[in-house]
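Our platform keeps sequence and structure together, in a single record for each protein. Because each token names a local backbone shape, the row as a whole describes the fold. One such record is reproduced below, unchanged from the form in which we store it:
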Amino acid sequence: MDSGYVLLVGITHSDTQADAVYAAKKIAGLRLFEDEDGKMNRSIEEAGQRAVDFSSPCTETLKGRRPSFVEAARPEQAEPLWLKFNEELTSHGLQVETGVFGAMMDVQLVNDGPVTIIVDSDGAKK
């Protein structure tokens, strides 16, 4: 894969199917790829790129030095939402490759630029 998105997807126990739909639509429409003028003005679909998606336990680090998994969804809730999220990405025209849900994986990537985006569906609920 030349370029595209690497998505680390964390699902909390309060996430719903609507959150999966929202996040997929938001990600598909984000304009993060450069146009002919060098501006971040093209979506992943317009740039003809792929998304590689991995499930990742959702953690919180506000207190102390040890990550908390209290907000993370149990696998029986998280896996169907992760699958729905991937289905929605595909419905937006993205070519999606995935890891294996809940598996230990060794992932390497090259970050092209100083951009890391957090997409949180909580904003859609307000």
The beta strands are 4-9, 31-34, 40-43, 50-55, 95-98. The helical segments are 17-29, 75-91. The mean pLDDT is 88. Residues 22 and 80 are 15 Å apart (CA to CA).
